[in-house]
Design goal:
Serine Threonine Protein Phosphatase 5, Tetratricopeptide repeat, single chain, about 80% helix, elongated, 2 domains, mainly alpha
Length: about 190
């Protein structure tokens, strides 16, 4: 029901359903930590979609705590939760905390996924964007270059994600006042 309410952008009803589901899970399956954490993440997502970032972060942090206590340090759900926290902190312009979350996320993904997994490249791209917002353009470029290299190995040369990486590298060179290289990557 919460999913349907989210699709309809009726976030208050979605949150009510998610909270009811959370209470039922806690009462009937208190040892199912993963389901409880996922439920907390879904509540956080609903708050995130309403741009209620403090509430979203509160639920994400609760989920993160449960995942850290009950899962291995390389569990993929832990990385997904850290990514959500990174996005939310990015939206609130807390770039330092956002970067830390993405950095932990990347570490987990690199340890637990195949080296050509697209989520690793995506995380590198997010880290590049955070660095650009921190005005760390050389670091932004380095993360985006690693992202491009990964994408080039696993995707066809005309894939949209490769074009996006090239464009992002152009932006970095533009910020570094190297218009020739910027134009080369934009081209």
């Amino acid at each position: 029901m919460a999913f349907v309410f989210q699709i309809e952008s009726n976030f208050e009803e979605a949150i009510d359903c998610q909270k009811r589901a959370l209470e039922i899970r806690k009462e009937n399956s208190p040892s199912d930590h993963l389901a409880i954490a996922k439920n907390l993440i879904e509540i956080g997502r609903s708050f995130d979609q309403q741009e209620e970032y403090d509430d979203a972060l509160d639920f994400y942090q609760q989920a993160l705590t449960i995942l850290e206590e009950s899962c291995s340090s390389e569990h993929i759900e832990l990385a997904a939760c850290l990514q959500r926290i990174g996005f939310t902190r990015y939206r609130t312009s807390d770039f330092d905390s956002s970067f830390e979350s993405f950095e932990r996320c990347l570490s987990i993904r690199e340890a637990s996924l195949p080296p050509n997994d697209s989520t690793i490249a995506d995380t590198l791209s997010y880290m590049s964007q955070v660095q650009r917002n921190r005005e760390q353009h050389e670091l932004s470029l380095a993360y985006q270059l690693n992202c491009l290299l990964m994408r080039s190995k696993s995707l066809p040369p005309d894939h949209l994600d490769i074009a996006t990486s090239l464009s992002e590298m152009g932006k970095s060179y533009e910020h570094l006042n190297d218009s020739k290289l910027a134009l080369t990557y934009y081209h």
